[in-house]
Design brief:
This protein is of the alpha+beta class. 23% of the residues lie in helices and 31% in strands. The protein is built from 11 helices and 32 strands. The strands form 9 sheets. A 4-stranded antiparallel beta sheet has the order 3-32-31-30. Strands 4-5-6-7 form a 4-stranded antiparallel beta sheet, with no helix packed on it. The radius of gyration is 29 Å and the shape is elongated. About 18% of the residues have low confidence. This is WD repeat-containing protein 91.
């Protein structure tokens, strides 16, 4: 319906431009802008409702919903009236929540959950989408007859019935308008169901998709839309983004933007509780912000010396580790907004490339490298492979703020680009500039195995869900799964594009190009380790990890970015999975996903 109206508007606009009716064209644009039905575009209607809510315009919100009720909802069968009432109640409750949040009043605390708000918006979106999908579009052959058709007959979902479903192929649809009286409620309901089945039989590929479970929550029964017709799965797929299919594992409930940075992002991490995010840009500015229930900056950290790395402490999770370019690591309290300690790591290796805090919170590992190893931004004329790389891997005690030991890096001192602990902190895996992956036993503090993993540097490394393997991304563009019980044995290997691996390129005016080597995490897993989030030129990409030779299967594109995404993170600490994608233009997109369980 929306596409048909939009095409019709375009045709009329082209005709007016061709005839030179500029005054009429201006009136048409004004009328389209003031159109309350928004050309039957569901996203525009949802945006209008949210504008009233965000502007605290209760009168406008009530008037707009009343208009939708008079124009659309009142024409539905009686069986859908409870669903409309539930959506109306949830809409006004959503308004109250937004108003009371300004004054930090927790009267409606059960409805402060981001999951409830996102689920309600998806339910309303699905309901309107299915409503417009069920509407019949009359397509008469002669243009003069168009003006004779009653607009009410287009919107009437109860009275219009197609006598010949195949007649639409010849653009000669025959319809009859039945009177509303003389039929029982049961017969009208049967006619409506028959009509709906005839409509959906034209789209068999859509009806086979799974129904979106966006309204199946126990704490928010007001948002249930079980009475909505069955093509809700197709609409849910549209909300999710790209290519929703029968096995679509996620629905993208919402995507918000954090735009407080003014330069390219280097790191972006969620804390262990899933309540706060810390992001670092190439200018050395750190932002600590929350996103539930609303996106809000909690602290801004400015530094005279350049900052190169960050990591959340695990216990307590309010502490943040910041590595600089002058050989220091700072322990920052995000709640008190002050520095607790500043540790001098190594003057000979002043660049703190990576930080990893143990799950127990008692210690952390830091990688210190020489100045020439990894600049924050390089030009196309600097060959990175020929640069000598030297570094150290050190273990520090968080409580005593003293160095415990220095790890032996065989065959020689090398800059470690990334490090990660397993769930209990007994194992540490690192990826270095010499292309080698090293696995350390943290009970004996020694390397248990090491192997050549990539041609070029190792950019990012993580343990798998079962911790029997590790995954790595390297400069050679490969995404590899390694067996940690057999040194150097590949479980699987996948090739990724430069958009997912780097170096990342942002083109500007007059042929200018900004090139940035990877610093932060390049991939992240979901809570069950079955899907992986990677970078791309337009947003995050989610793949399904398939066993064997079937490779990576793309399941969802998050999108939303105009510049290359350089680092990602995936938090599953909350009910809805939260994906973070940060790009070279300083924008961070927060995408809330709803997992569809098979």
């Amino acid at each position: 319906m929306a596409s048909a109206v939009e095409r019709t508007d375009d045709v009329v606009r082209e005709y007016l431009i061709y005839r030179g009716f500029t005054s009429t064209l201006k009136h048409l644009d004004v009328e389209i802008k003031a159109d309350k039905e928004k050309g039957f575009r569901v996203d525009k209607i949802i945006d209008q409702l949210q504008q009233f809510i965000q502007g605290y315009d209760l009168a406008g919100l009530k008037e707009y919903w009343s208009y939708l009720d008079r124009r659309l909802f009142c024409r539905l069968e009686d069986v859908y009236r409870p669903t409309v009432n539930k959506l109306r109640t949830s809409l006004f409750r959503y308004y109250l929540v937004m108003v009371y949040m300004v004054f930090h009043i927790q009267t409606f605390s059960p409805y402060f959950s981001r999951q409830w708000a996102d689920t309600f918006l998806v339910s309303l979106h699905n309901f309107l989408s299915v409503l417009f999908q069920c509407m019949h579009i009359l397509t008469p052959s002669p243009l003069p007859a168009f003006s004779k058709i009653s607009l009410n007959s287009v919107f009437d979902l109860q009275a219009v019935k197609a006598k010949d479903p195949t007649a639409s192929k010849d653009s000669k649809m025959t319809v009859t308008v039945e009177p509303g009286t003389g039929h029982s409620r049961q017969k009208r309901h049967m006619d409506h169901e028959k009509e709906r089945k005839e409509l959906f039989s034209k789209h068999p590929q859509q009806s086979s998709e799974k129904k979106a479970e966006s309204s199946d929550t126990e704490t928010q029964p007001e948002c249930e839309t079980s009475d909505v017709p069955s093509n809700q799965a197709r609409v849910g797929g549209e909300v999710g983004g790209a290519g929703a299919g029968p096995e679509q594992p996620f629905i993208k409930l919402s995507q918000e933007e954090y735009g407080e940075h003014h330069s390219s992002i280097m790191h972006c991490r969620v804390d262990c509780s899933g309540r706060r995010v810390a992001s670092l840009d190439v200018d050395g500015v750190v932002k600590v912000w929350s996103f539930n229930p609303i996106m809000q900056t909690k602290a801004t950290i400015m530094s005279k010396s350049p900052l190169l790395s960050l990591e959340w402490a695990t216990k307590p999770d309010r502490l943040l580790l910041l590595g600089s370019g002058v050989g220091t690591v700072r322990l920052y309290d995000t709640e008190a907004k002050k520095n607790l300690y500043e540790m001098l790591i190594d003057e000979a290796h002043p660049r703190i490339l990576s930080l990893a805090c143990s799950p127990s919170g008692t210690s952390f590992v830091c990688s210190a490298a020489a100045n020439m190893s990894r600049p924050g931004s390089i030009t196309e004329t600097v060959p990175r492979a020929s640069l000598p790389v030297s570094g150290q891997l050190l273990l520090w005690d968080t409580k005593t703020v003293k160095q415990q030991l220095q790890f032996a890096l065989e065959p020689g001192p090398v800059a470690v680009n990334c490090a990660a602990f397993n769930h209990n902190g007994n194992l540490l895996v690192t990826g270095a500039a010499d292309g080698r992956i090293r696995l350390f036993d943290m009970q004996r503090y020694e390397s248990v195995m090491s192997w050549k993993a990539h041609d070029g540097e190792v950019y990012s490394v993580e343990f798998s869900y079962d911790e029997n393997t590790v995954f790595s991304i390297g400069e050679d563009g490969k995404f590899i799964q390694w067996n940690i019980h057999r040194s150097g044995v590949k479980q699987s290997e996948y090739s990724l594009s430069q958009d997912a691996v780097g170096p990342f390129v942002l083109s500007g005016y007059s042929g200018y190009k900004q090139v940035q080597v990877p610093h932060g995490r390049l991939f992240a897993f979901d809570s069950e380790g079955q899907h992986v989030l990677t970078c791309s030129s337009t947003g995050g990409l989610i793949y399904r990890l398939n066993k064997g030779e079937s490779g990576l299967e793309s399941v969802l594109s998050l999108g939303g970015h105009k510049a290359p995404v350089v680092t990602v993170d995936w938090c599953s600490a909350v009910d809805c999975g939260t994906c973070l994608t940060a790009s070279m233009d300083g924008k961070i997109k927060l995408s809330t996903l709803l997992a569809q369980k098979p």
